[in-house]
Design goal:
Blueprint: H1 2-14, H2 19-23, H3 28-35, H4 43-49, H5 57-66, H6 68-71, H7 84-96, H8 105-123, H9 130-140, H10 148-158, H11 163-177, H12 187-207, H13 210-224, H14 231-249, H15 252-263, H16 271-283
Helix pairs in contact: 1-5, 7-8, 8-9, 10-12, 11-12, 12-13, 12-14, 13-14, 14-15
């Protein structure tokens, strides 16, 4: 529990507490060693530590998972950056945070998802097991707003669940943006939901669910009316719309427009990102290498 110990140390100092105030029935020396990652204390210690810190166990564990140092590890769960050893290490650290008879829905869901992703990659599966999808659905459908980790869980899992399930999760977030039909969310939060829409729209394209994809794209543009212009998001929405039109119409005009939009990505993103986007598009069969023969960056 090295990271948890570091978090406890940060919270203790932030609250102006001494080691004596948090050590309880354990020695200050043991508590100091725990904070510095030299020893792993028992589950009972973790639960009792939360009291002088002014937290409950669930909040303490959630704060640890959401720390920047922890979040950085989650990037390796995305299929394009998948790293088996990093996923195993993350799973091991998550399991160490478990405390018997103590509930933390985020921790439970995270452990379930990372375990399943390890199996998915080992078995070369394309779809998560139904029980895992149900666990995710139970968790995500209760959230009024996605945290960064919730967003990561959603993004990495969308690739392995039927598109209608991913869209259901996003629709719930959209409803949370507009209680009683009135938009009350911040621009940042609206942008995040638009980004989630884009993720599901891509999944719809991969599954050939073009009518659903069009509905998702329309919703993205509706939400866009509530926020200032943003070049990155504008491009993502434009490419989703152009792809949807091209896959639906399959004409020379629609295809040329889709390719033209994709080529503009080098004005917005670094060269390596532009190349990666083009390569991904070609791999999915949405374009060919010949379409980019005049692109000097490819």
């Amino acid at each position: 529990m090295t990271e948890l110990g570091d978090l406890v140390k940060h919270l203790r100092k932030n609250r102006g507490l001494t080691l004596q105030a948090t050590s309880g029935r354990w020695s200050q020396s043991s508590m100091s060693r725990f904070e510095n990652g030299e020893i792993d204390l028992t589950d009972d210690v973790v639960k009792e530590l939360a009291i002088p810190l002014g937290l409950d166990y669930e909040d303490l564990i959630t704060r640890n998972i959401l720390r920047e140092s922890s979040i950085n590890r989650w990037e390796y769960l995305a299929s394009e950056q998948w790293h088996t050893e990093a996923a195993r290490d993350l799973l091991s650290n998550l399991k160490q945070l478990q405390v018997e008879n103590a509930r933390n829905d985020l921790l439970k869901t995270a452990i379930t998802v990372v375990s399943e992703l390890l199996d998915v990659h080992a078995q070369h599966r394309r779809i998560m097991h139904d029980d895992v999808v149900r666990t995710l659905n139970d968790y995500l459908s209760k959230l009024s707003e996605f945290s960064r980790i919730d967003g990561i869980l959603f993004s990495v899992c969308t690739e392995y669940v039927p598109v209608q399930i991913g869209w259901r999760w996003v629709l719930h977030q959209i409803r949370m943006l507009e209680p009683a039909g009135n938009m009350q969310a911040t621009p940042q939060r609206i942008r995040r939901v638009i980004s989630f829409c884009g993720t599901v729209a891509e999944r719809a394209a991969l599954e050939g669910r073009l009518t659903l994809m069009q509905s998702i794209v329309d919703e993205m543009y509706r939400l866009k009316t509530y926020i200032p212009e943003n070049a990155n998001q504008q491009f993502s929405m434009a490419i989703s719309r152009a792809l949807c039109v091209d896959l639906t119409e399959r004409t020379v005009v629609s295809h040329d427009k889709f390719v033209a939009v994709l080529k503009t990505s080098h004005y917005i993103f670094p060269t390596d990102v532009h190349r990666s986007m083009v390569q991904y598009t070609i791999e999915q069969g949405w374009a060919t290498a010949e379409d980019f023969a005049d692109d000097p960056l490819i």
